[in-house]
Amino acid sequence: MGKKSGRKKKGEEVKNDNTVFIEEKYSINSYRDLNAKNIINGIRYNRFVQILTGLIIIGIILRLYNLSFNSLWLDEATTLNYARRSLFEIFESSIISEFHPPLFYWIEHLMLNFGETEFILRFWPAVFGILAIPIFYLIGCEIKNREVGIISALLITISPFAIFYSQDARSYTMTLFFFSLSLLCYLYALKEKNVKWWIIFGLTSALALWSHYYVIIGTGILMIHAIITNYKEFRNNKSSCKIFLIGLLSFLIISLPLIFVLYQRYLALSEKAPTSGILGISLISASFEYFSGYNWYIAVMFILLFLIGTLYLMRENLSYSILILGLIIVPLIFSVIISAKIPTNPRYLIYLLPVFYIGIGLSYVPLKNIIKNNKFIYVFMAFLILINIPFMATYYTGYSKNDWKGFSENLNGITENGDIIVVIPGYMVQPLNYYYSNSSDRTIELLASSHETLMDINKKYPEKTKYYIMTGDIMAADPSGGTLKWLQDNGNVLGQHMGIYLLKSNP
């Protein structure tokens, strides 16, 4: 028998060529491809659009599944507290007492028309987390190609960090979405060089600032990058400089009320040394650990992949590589510096995820050049999924936040009419009272944040049984340790419910 020829038949060649042509015809690589006909045909014929669609569906499931499972914790209960106020009162509070801009609270205020359940409060954070997925894809396409885009979209889809805050009634995923959108619009503005994209960039950057003050650092880096990369053009072409200034002006007009507030809030917060958050250089390692699924071993691997991807990009596009490095390095250094003045936390840096994940996605390109196999992308993506399985296996089956609901049910079963309930620190009454009612339980609820207050309560109600509800925040409220020592001397620990402790007064 003779050997079979490896040559393809003419009909097969035509069929394969047609398949490639159709797939490329209905690809989605930029905003120009975003029309109904192209999206529908892309889902039918283009593998990257099919994968992206699958990732969005998976993202919806991961973010909406068990959305009400965890109890509201302190920050979420604070969100509810502000959302219950009028629109003007919310803005007034953001000036006087709250360090977060009012936009998210306004959205939650409107959502309260549908109820005050955990699902309602967490709905928009989940939606913003879902909407970030296609944005990451388009950023990757713009920086390099569809492969980088789809890997970046995969990373944000299955990111434990992003999933957690997509199920948290705070503004973090809204910040992530708007800053990612502003980054994408910035890339389009650099490329298109027209006033439309500079204005949209200014608007989306302003919305990001109205979501969280911390993004002012990232937005500033984008502005500086625009000036540096276009300096000669701005100098020689007044029209180019003019359209950039129009975009900058659109940002300033919308952000102006917040810029003054930001400075005032910084002064107020920096009056005392921070008693919470992560201080100093450890903030950098903690941030990468959070970005990498709360796992330091994965963080080390992701950092190496990020460096490989960024070094590769330096050879291909020096301007973009400087942008990516600047967006990672400068905010981290700035955060380390101000951590000595105000409380800082890796969640404030969630807007860096598109930059970090794009850098990781870029590492695929040089690795593919070494492997020399077009199907390597599937292996790369499968590996990224595999390392996140341990998180997925436990996240939806156990509590990731203090179980105030379960604690309140237990408290109801222990107390008797007329007992004193003392909440320490006092602000923990917010998540407690979402589930517990002292009026229906017929107890007296009091707040305390110092041992002096506890002593006064003890003197006022000497004959009554007192239950002390304490959390780890006690050291943030009273760093001296006086409150904790008083409780140790005057109370017996009845039990611990996750991070919530219940003590009973000594006989």
Q: Which characteristics define this entry?
A:
507 residues, mainly alpha, transferase, globular, disordered N terminus, transmembrane, Glycosyltransferase family 39 protein, 27 helices, 2 domains, 5 strands, 5-stranded mixed beta sheet
Topology of this structure?
Blueprint: H1 10-25, H2 36-45, H3 47-64, H4 74-83, H5 87-96, H6 103-111, H7 118-143, H8 146-158, H9 160-166, H10 172-192, H11 195-211, H12 215-229, H13 231-236, H14 238-269, H15 282-291, H16 296-316, H17 318-338, H18 353-362, H19 364-371, H20 376-386, H21 389-395, H22 404-414, E1 420-424, H23 429-435, H24 438-441, E2 444-447, H25 451-460, E3 466-471, H26 474-477, H27 482-490, E4 491-497, E5 500-505
Parallel strand pairs: 1-2, 1-3
Antiparallel strand pairs: 3-5, 4-5
Helix pairs in contact: 2-3, 3-7, 3-8, 4-6, 7-8, 7-9, 7-10, 7-18, 8-18, 8-20, 10-11, 10-12, 11-14, 12-17, 15-16, 15-17, 16-17, 16-18, 22-23
